[in-house]
Amino acid sequence: MPPRRVIGIDAGGTKLLGGVVDEDLVVHHRVHRTWRGADRAETLDIFVEAVEEARTAAPDVDAVGFGVPALVDRELGVSRWSTHLPLEEVPFRDLMSERLGLPVVIDNDANAALVAEARFGAARDTDHAVLVALGTGIGSGLLLDGRIYRGSRGLGAELGHMVIDMHGPDCQGACPGRGCLEVMASGSAIGREGEAAARRSPESALGRRLAAGREISGGIVTELAHDGDEVARAVLAEIGRRLGYGLVGVVNVFNPELIVIGGGAIAAGELLLEPARAVVAERALPPAREAVRIAPTHFGDESGMLGAALMALDPVVSAS
Amino acid sequence: MPPRRVIGIDAGGTKLLGGVVDEDLVVHHRVHRTWRGADRAETLDIFVEAVEEARTAAPDVDAVGFGVPALVDRELGVSRWSTHLPLEEVPFRDLMSERLGLPVVIDNDANAALVAEARFGAARDTDHAVLVALGTGIGSGLLLDGRIYRGSRGLGAELGHMVIDMHGPDCQGACPGRGCLEVMASGSAIGREGEAAARRSPESALGRRLAAGREISGGIVTELAHDGDEVARAVLAEIGRRLGYGLVGVVNVFNPELIVIGGGAIAAGELLLEPARAVVAERALPPAREAVRIAPTHFGDESGMLGAALMALDPVVSAS
Fold it and tell me: Which of A147, A171, A151 is closest to A161 using CA atoms?
C-alpha cells in the first residue's frame, strides 16, 4: 500500500507555499501563490486554487492542513484576527472543508512550523522550545512542558508583538503596537532598513541596486550580504541585534532549552543569528542564557508547510 | 483541635515579611527585617532570626515556606542565582531545614505570591493568569493552562527582564540586561524617577521633600501622589505607561484572562494601573486585549508571605 498523502499549506503575510506530503514527510509537489492586496473573497479563492493545483498532481490526497498568519481558534477552526490578511472572524475550517470536499485542519502558521520542528526537526527531544519565524511579519510558537501553548482563547504566542522599543516606530499591518519585535526585526524590517542603508551608501552594492530601480527586499539584502557587501551585512547585523533583544526576553521568560529561528529571513543564516546570539550572551540572565541554544529551523522555510501536512495526517497528536 | 500553623517568609530585594499563618489563612503574628548590603552569611542569619522570632510567638508551627527573589530549583530546593541577594548556588532548603529543625519549602517569591492569588485571591477560578510584583525589582509568576510555569530548569517566568527599551538604561543589581521592564517600572524606578522629578520641580511637594534632605523612595512618591502632588502623580503615570508597554507583550504572548499586579508599589493603586491599562487598550492586539483584565492583588503586598505559608501547609498542591 502506498503511503497516505495530504496537502500542507503554509500561508505567510505575502505568499503561500503548499505541498503534497506523504507519511514519510516526502514532498511530491509544491505550489506557490502571492496575495498582495487580495480582499477576503480573493484570499480564500487563492487558498482553494492552491489546493486544487496540488490535488491535480495528487488526486489521492485525503486531507488538507492550513497554517495561516492569524490568531486561530483551533478547536472551532475559526480565524479570529490577522495582522496581515483579511481573515477576521472567518470560519475557515468549515468553509474550506465544504469547498474542497476534504477534511481540513487549521492552525496558526508558526504553530504549524513548531509541530514539524518539534516532531522531526531541530526541537526534537526537547520539552521547552520557542520557534520564531521571520517573514513578512514574525510568527512564533511555544512548546512549554512538552505541549504547544495557545493561551486562554488560542490567541497567544505572539512573540512578534512583544515591545522591545517603547519609543520605536508603529508596528506593521493591523497591529496597533509600537516598537514590537515584528516591526523591528522581521524580514520586512530587513528590507526597510536595507532601503535606508542603500540611500545612505549609494556606492555600495545595495545602493547601486536601488539606483537601478530595484525594490530593496529582505531577500535582496540577504543575497548581497552573502556576496560580501558590507552595507548589506551591517543591515543584517543590526536586525540580528534587535532580534537578540527580543530573545533576551524570551530566554528570561521561558527558560527554553532551544530557540529555533525560521521563516524566509533565515536564509541570512549566521549573518543574522550570530549578532542575535551575541546580545543574548551579553544581556540575558546568566543561568538561563547558559541553558539555551539558538539554532535555525531544520526544515528551513518549509517547516510551516510540513507542519500543516503533519496536522492533516494526524490532527489529534499535533493538537497537543 | 486547633488549626495547623506554619510560617511564611516573603523575601524581597530590600526587606523581608514573615508571618505565622494558619490553615484558614489567618495571620497571627508578623515579623519584618531589612538586609541592605548583607553578605551571604548575614542574609541567611536574617532568615533564621526572622523565623525564630515568629516561632517564639507560635511554638506550635510545624513547617516553614520561603519565597525568595531568586531563580530557584524548587525540586532540589536550591537558589541558583539572584539579581538582588547573595544567594547564588545556595542549597537553601536543606540548609534552613537543618538550622531550624523544621520541614522547609522554597520557591521564587513571585511564584509564592501567585500560589496565594491563584488559590484564594484575584486569580481564583482562572487557568491563565500572570502575576507581576513591583518592588525593589520586578518578580513575576505564570499560571499557564492551570499550572505554574517554571521553564526547563526552573529559571523562567522572569518577566521583569523582558527588554521594553533596547536603547534604555542598564538594568539593576546583577542583571546584565538593558531597558528591562524591571529597571523601567519597578518600585525602585518610581523612586529614581521621583528624585529626578523633584530636582526638576523644586517647588512641588516632592521637590520640597528632597530639599528637606529626605531620600525619595517609591513609597514617598506614592504617598505624595495620593495627597494630590501633580509632580508625583506624573511620575506614577509615566511608570504606569512603561508597565503598560511591558504588559502589551504579556497580553500578546500569553493571552491571559487576568494580569495581577502586586508588590509594594501596588500601594499606588489606580494611579499606576490606569495608565498601564490605557497603553494595553491602545497597543495590544485587539482580540487578546479584549480577553484580559488587569487587577491588583487580592492580598496587597502580603500575597508572597501567604503563598509561602500555603506552600509550607501543602507542598504537593502548590508545586503544580
Answer: A171
